[in-house]
Amino acid sequence: MSDKVLMKGNEAIAEAAIIAGCRHYFGYPITPQTEIAAYMAKRMPKIGGCFLQAESEIAAINMVYGVASTGKRVMTSSSSPGISLKGEGLSYLAGADLPSLVINVQRGGPGLGGIQPSQSDYFQATRAGGHGDFRMIVLAPASVQEMAELTVKGFDLADKYRMTTMILADGTMGQMMEPVALDELKVGAPIEKPWATVGTKMEREHNIVNSLFLDPAALEKTNFERYDRYKTIEENEVLYEEYLMEDAEICVVAFGIAARVSKNAIDEARKQGIKVGMIRPITLWPFPVAPFKKAAEHCKAFISVELSMGQMIEDVRLATECKAPVTLCNRVGGMIPSPEQVLASICEAAKTNGGAN
Amino acid sequence: MRNFKRITLLCGHYGSGKTNVAVNLALHLRKTKDRVAVADLDIVNPYFRTKDSRGAFEDAGIRLICSEYANTNVDIPALPQDMYAVTDDRSLHAVIDVGGDDRGALALGRIVEPILAENNYEMLAVINSSRPLTHTPEDTVEVLREIEGASGMKFTGLVNNTNLGRETDADVVLKSVSYAETVSNLMKIPLVMTTVPAEIFPQLERKIDNLFPLELQKKL
Asked: Are A117 and A107 in contact (CB under 8 A)?
């Protein structure tokens, strides 16, 4: 049996980053993710790493750009309003093909919103992290153990594809405490970074890290090349969990805290004889299209359970090609759907679409 | 159970379980004391406050002294306006729930002088070896020394609150006793109690000295 420790989700992210070899953290405090910065402030000086509280979120993301240029593993973290501030930096990181890990422990919005959990930055993370054509790999943990595992995975993917990975968590995931087996974390083999700006030693041409291309043909070429890489990611890096989907006639779709709530509701619905299962996307981009294509063959209805006004639901409709109705079960503003609310949505879908036995 | 001084201060590492211990200790004290108060001086964490247990306190007739902003999502490090009742009203038995780490202990600066002057207090360190930054006795002592530095007070005893959340079992608690005894030796202060979830209490009652059942869990 492994030696478990009791950690907050935020702390698990910080320790997992250190295990993954991250020695540079730049951030600015904001609830509900401040424990990441607090933990890094305590740990980094002891292991020869750098913790720096930047003067703003914008400064922090540009410090990430600087360290990423040298090929070192680097991360920043924030919560919703702070991620908006980082938007410009995220675009520059994409334009310069730099690997980095960015954590968003979401809170209710828009604006300053509140400090309770939310999933309403789904569009921002999967569609519009900043200006220009680019993607981020977006990972959605649903337990403290996964907060740690996906952080390690996030660094590996960022290096492999030279891009930003975002952990899209929420206030619940950040604040909840669960046992974690840190010794089970597997860090991938180091990836060569011949592009890093670490000095030529007079042995090679200069490496240039840059997102400015004044020649439109050259700029177009970088975009096409980047999207070829994205295609490889869509083909190879999709992660999801299926729960009781073999015979499901109703499919619940949820990630993060919403998936935990939904699991309880599904167990209860199964007791009532309703054939319901769940697809839990773990990569929000790339979105797991294949399991939805399969599910659309035998499911009469889909229910997207979200802490937003309905954002992932668009990806569900695209993935199922609208072969079955998709309804929304949601709470927003820092509220979390109860298992009873999800159960009611399942019962309603069963009644409307004949999923009940 | 032993006699407690008029004021019991609970300090420790962030997430060591101070609030949960505070709630349980206050309910325990109320069995023998007429006037019991819980004072929440947490300036670190806007969530998971003693206020979560206000229903239990009301039922038991325990006074709750906490910032009006606790649990309101107003994310500011405010202290309760009636916190001086703890030191002014010597007929109260008070359990003081202090925020985590040295940063949380800074809040004690406001009341340290009258507490020391009255000299009828205990300052207990709540420790949990399952927390990664207090995993070893040496790491734990380092955190406790930082708290002493920030608060201007010295610990007088230890509460071994080692737990793994929902996965806490008898083995986890049993194994933690030698850890707590080592911290006790290094700090030269007594191990006042070891806590255990109430449902495991019968299994360990005869195996661990000064075992204290935690009956109430904070809401998540």
From this structure: yes
**CB < 8 Å to A8, chain B:** 15
Which chain A residue is nearest to residue B73, measuring alpha carbons?
Answer: A115
B104 Cβ contact partners less than 8 Å away, ≥ 6 residues apart: B11, B14, B41, B42, B43, B44, B98, B147
**Contact assessment for residue B153 and residue B109, using Cβ atoms and an 8 Å cutoff:** no
CA distance B45 to B68: 14
* Partners of residue B220 in chain A, C-beta under 8 Å: 176
Picking from A6, A38, A334, the nearest residue to B164 by CB comes out as: A6
Please name the amino acid found at residue B26: A
- State whether A116 and B73 contact (CB < 8 Å): yes
Q: Which domains does chain B have, with CATH numbers?
A: 7-214 (3.40.50.300)
- Contact B47/A32, CB-based, under 8 Å? yes
Q: Do A5 and B130 touch (CB under 8 A)?
A: yes
CATH topology of domain A241-353: Rossmann fold (3.40.50)
- pTM of the shown model: 0.95
Q: State whether B46 and A115 contact (CB < 8 Å).
A: yes
- Rounded to two decimals, the ipTM of the complex is 0.92
> Hey, are the CB atoms on B132 and A182 less than 8 Å from each other?
yes
pLDDT tens for the 357 residues of chain A, in order = 458 999 999 999 999 999 999 999 999 999 999 999 999 999 999 999 999 999 999 999 999 999 999 999 999 999 999 999 999 999 999 999 999 999 999 999 999 999 999 999 999 999 989 999 999 999 999 999 999 999 999 999 999 999 999 999 999 999 999 999 999 999 999 999 999 999 999 999 999 999 999 999 999 999 999 999 999 999 999 999 999 999 999 999 999 999 999 999 999 999 999 999 999 999 999 999 999 999 999 999 999 999 999 999 999 999 999 999 999 999 999 999 999 999 999 999 999 986 444
CATH superfamily, with its number, for domain A5-236: Thiamin diphosphate (ThDP)-binding fold, Pyr/PP domains (3.40.50.970)
Q: Which two tokens stand for residue A187?
A: 């860090």
